[in-house]
Specification:
With 231 residues, the chain is mostly beta strands. It has helices at 102-106, 135-141, 160-170, 196-201, and strands at 11-18, 21-26, 31-34, 57-59, 78-80, 84-88, 91-99, 110-118, 121-125, 146-150, 174-178, 206-210, 212-216, 225-230. Helix content is 13%, strand content 34%.
């Protein structure tokens, strides 16, 4: 893998808010929030709502209610929803537009896979994308240090076989599961399940970490691991 060539910060603090929402804070005092969530008026998914978040940039993979709660942002935050390549604050952000998984995918509902290159690492957030991505996207996102990937035991977005194939072809160093039932945050009406069955099906080493942790390029494993965040 070719590492990022810009003069980048060395550490990243990652905070997991639950569901598909992560805050990445870099040494350069630049922070990126991804996919904050909310309840819809007619659909109760979360019993713990998103707090207000101070970030420089918010990435939204798609316009579903559980991924686009922009009202928790401060007015100085920028919002990015579109595909393309963006260079800011000594980091590169790449957005690859594709199609949502499942029923929304049949309606050609768009989803943007985001790749962030900074701190001599790369981070890929899958959003709710379908598994069968184009070869051009695969080539652009392969071998990331961290892949944020949806998984739950209902196979709501991706089947276990589809996840296995994605891990095989993308070859991430770390897989962080997301978009599953978390008792402290998720409401039972959202119909998601946890990830115990999926975890038991995976041969990779597992690491259980707190929802606020710091990494750098030297802490990334050589072979694929699954990191489960306690939220």
């Amino acid at each position: 893998m070719t590492r990022h060539i810009l003069d980048t910060p060395t550490e990243v603090q990652i905070h997991y808010y639950g569901h598909s929402c992560f805050l990445l804070s870099f040494d350069s005092n630049f922070s990126i929030l991804i996919d904050p969530y909310r309840n819809r008026e007619d659909r109760l998914w979360f019993k713990k709502l998103m707090p207000e978040v101070n970030c420089d940039l918010c990435l939204i993979t798609h316009a579903h209610f559980d991924h686009d709660e922009i009202h928790v942002l401060e007015e100085t935050s920028s919002i990015l929803r579109v595909p393309g390549t963006f260079i800011t604050n000594s980091m590169e952000i790449h957005g690859f537009q594709d199609i949502h998984a499942g029923r929304s995918g049949k309606l050609n509902f768009p989803n943007t896979i985001f790749k962030i290159e900074a701190a001599n690492m790369s981070f890929v957030h899958w959003g709710d994308n379908r598994p069968n991505i184009a070869d051009s996207i695969h080539e652009s996102i392969k071998e990331p240090d961290i892949l944020f990937l949806p998984s739950d035991d209902t196979r709501h977005l991706l089947s276990f076989d589809e996840i296995e194939e994605l891990i095989r072809i993308i070859r991430p160093k770390v897989v962080i599961p997301m978009h599953y039932f978390i008792d402290k945050i998720s409401h039972k009406e959202n119909s998601l399940l946890g990830i115990n069955e999926w975890l038991n099906s995976r041969p990779e080493p597992k690491k259980y970490i707190t929802n606020d942790f710091i990494i750098n390029a030297t802490t990334i494993p050589d072979e694929t691991e699954i990191w489960v965040i306690d939220c």
